[in-house]
Every structure is written in C-alpha cells, then in structure tokens.
Known about the structure:
By secondary structure, the chain is an all-alpha fold. It has helices spanning 2-15, 19-28, 33-42, 46-55, 60-70.
Amino acid sequence: EKLRQRSLRIVIAETGLSPLAAEELLKQAGGEVRVALVMHRAHVSCDTAVKALEGSGGSIDAAVQHCSVSR
C-alpha cells in the first residue's frame, strides 16, 4: 500500500493528472511508474511503452523519444 501511494504521488507530480486519472493510468500500466509515464508523455499503449523502455535501457526520456520517432 505504501509503495502504491508513492507511485501514485510520482505519477501525479510528473504528469499533472488528477489523482483519479493518475490511478487509472497506473492501473493500465500494471502499476509500473516508468511505463505509466511513457504512456502519458508519448500517448502510447502499455505494450508500446514497455517495448520502448526495453529498447532504451529503461530511460523514460529515451523511450518517449523512441516512440516519437517510430510514428
């Protein structure tokens, strides 16, 4: 519970989403903060975000850039 709340606070702070929207995004991302942030910033699905993160060595910024280039 403590980790879930921390993850939610991070997503809210990084995205500016409301708590309810951030919670839904985290749910779609399987509870993974990095995946949620890439999904939000690049406007991509969970699967695309996961693949982008894997291809970028886990870097959120690089994953978002990768998604932008792939479009």
